[in-house]
Design goal:
The chain has 20 helices and 11 strands. It is of the alpha/beta class. The strands form 3 sheets. A 5-stranded mixed β-sheet has the order 8-7-11-9-10. Strands 3-2-1-4 form a 4-stranded parallel β-sheet, sandwiched between helices. It binds flavin mononucleotide (FMN) and iron/sulfur cluster (SF4). The site of flavin mononucleotide has 24 residues, from strand 4 and helix 16.
């Protein structure tokens, strides 16, 4: 098989590629010039639509379709580039901004023009200190060269671009939380509808796209729709950045066509190169934390937008794989996951605020050796009653919490039960009475079926 030629990472390792003249010497900004001087915005939207590009930020929503939802008679439009990258296990946006900042800026020019945006805001997580300075420097250079600002490429199109640094909240990666935060408010997601395309930043039509989605755009312009569709699988066109972390020989960020299997990502010579000496795979969370877990036997799952669903996962997510080694205590994995979501819930919705915290309390109790087998049913029950998919919350955070928590309990149930049954006699009572009673208090039961199970 012919070796895959990187697209998004093609400039990695090119000396001084962060400098504008070097990026331009490799054909950079030619796509932006072509679109701004030869195409209409609607043409650009149609091209991206027909390329089949789907959002890389988690939900996989078709990019061109999202752009086409903007009201045709709008006067002001904003483009928000989601560089919050807060999903655990995910660091591909960071690599893109660090290694090839002008690729993103060129994508912003094209996306801005296609959506008739007057300003673009790059919302970047605050922990990206180095990436912020790299990107700001590239943006300053682009401004000095007349690539942003007024009358771009001699046309009447104007676009301002700003980098806004977040304050470190997971929920600010959710598009309406991001918009609230950009407006200077607490990053509380908004009830939808209205969706941002109709009423977004400063209540104007707004498009929110992930960094990697935007980075695909100049390549589609340069090499065409058919080329883009020829990469990947049927409903999952194009290149993808996969990241892998955990006890593998070569953790990192790798590019491959969409549809790389999780096994190849962990064991392939071009990717993770297998487990560290003495370690075996127990499972893998392949899409950023929020998609759910695969067992070792399920590692042949293709990481595209469709195959993942056959394995009970929420979706492809961000394709950031977290490998769980054989010697990890599954109870601690669960406690760690529940702690994250409980901490990050913004607290607006009762089901999410209470549900994530309740799950954390149960998981802590199990991890401390004071769990009951019925707790496992309780966990599954709670995860089914707190998400946006069930119409119970404003944003998708609790759905993202439910999938890893539920799939871990369901797919590793024997291991949990084994731990619980091997607990010392009397330990449950001991833990409840003597060890931080607040932390291990019995949950208030949530539904009849759970009460019956207990
Ligand atoms: C809790 C939560 C956190 C999210 N965090 C991010 C994030 O860090 N980066 C991102 O691009 N999308 C994130 N998303 C998805 C965004 O809401 C949105 O779908 C995405 O930015 C759209 O871009 P795309 O269409 O290019 O994928 C998050 C969603 C939720 C519910
Ligand atoms: S679902 Fe959770 S994170 Fe999202 S708005 Fe409601 S409380 Fe906040």
């Amino acid at each position: 098989m012919a070796k895959y030629e990187p697209v998004l990472l093609k400039n990695v390792g090119v000396p001084d590629i962060r400098k504008l003249d070097v990026y331009r010497s490799r054909g950079g900004y030619a796509s932006a010039k072509k679109v701004l001087t030869e195409w209409t915005p609607d043409q650009a939207v149609e091209i991206i639509k027909s390329s089949g590009l789907r959002g890389r930020g988690g939900a996989g929503f078709p990019c061109g379709m999202k752009w086409s939802f903007l009201p045709p008679d709008r006067k002001i439009t904003y483009l928000c580039v989601n560089a919050d990258e807060s999903e655990p296990g995910t660091f591909c946006n960071r690599v893109l901004m660090e290694e090839d900042p002008h690729q993103l800026l060129e994508g912003i020019l094209i996306a801005g023009f296609a959506t008739r945006s007057t300003a673009a805001y790059i919302y970047m997580r605050v922990e990206f200190h180095e990436q912020f300075h790299i990107l700001q420097k590239a943006l300053d250079e682009a401004y000095a060269a007349g690539l942003f600002g007024k009358k771009l490429f001699g046309t009447d199109y104007n676009l301002e671009c700003y980098i806004h640094r977040g304050a470190g909240a997971y929920v600010c990666g959710e598009e309406t939380g991001l918009i609230e935060s950009l407006e200077g408010k607490r990053g509380w997601p908004r009830i939808k509808p209205p969706f941002p395309a109709i009423e977004g930043l400063f209540r104007r039509p707004t498009v929110v796209n992930n960094v990697e989605t935007i980075c695909c755009v100049p390549h589609i312009v340069e090499r065409g729709v058919e080329w883009f569709k020829s990469i990947g699988t049927e409903n999952s066109a194009g290149p993808k950045l996969y990241t892998v972390s955990g006890p593998v020989k070569r953790p990192g960020c790798f590019e491959a066509p969409l549809g790389l299997s999780c096994r190849d990502l962990i064991f392939g010579d071009d990717y993770g190169q297998g487990m560290l000496e003495g370690k075996k795979v127990k499972g893998c969370i392949p899409g950023g934390l929020s998609v759910g877990v695969l067992t070792e036997k399920e590692l042949d799952c293709k990481l595209d937008f469709d195959d993942v669903r056959k394995y009970g996962l929420l979706g492809l997510g961000t394709a950031g794989a977290i490998v769980i080694p054989h010697d990890a205590d599954i109870r601690h994995v669960l406690a760690n996951i529940t702690r994250f979501y409980s901490h990050e819930s913004c607290g607006q919705c009762t089901q999410c605020r209470e549900g994530t915290n309740w799950l954390y309390k149960i998981a802590k109790r199990i991890a401390a050796g004071a769990g009951r087998v019925a707790d496992l049913d309780l966990i599954v029950e709670v995860t089914k009653n707190m998400g946006m998919m069930g119409g119970l919350s404003i944003c998708g955070l609790p759905d993202g919490a439910a999938f890893p928590i539920r799939t871990i309990v369901e797919k590793f149930r024997d291991e949990f039960e084994d731990h619980i049954r091997r607990q010392e006699p009397g330990r449950v009572e001991y833990m409840i009475k003597h060890v931080n009673p607040a932390a291990y208090e019995l949950p208030i039961l949530g539904s009849r079926s759970v009460q019956a199970a207990v």
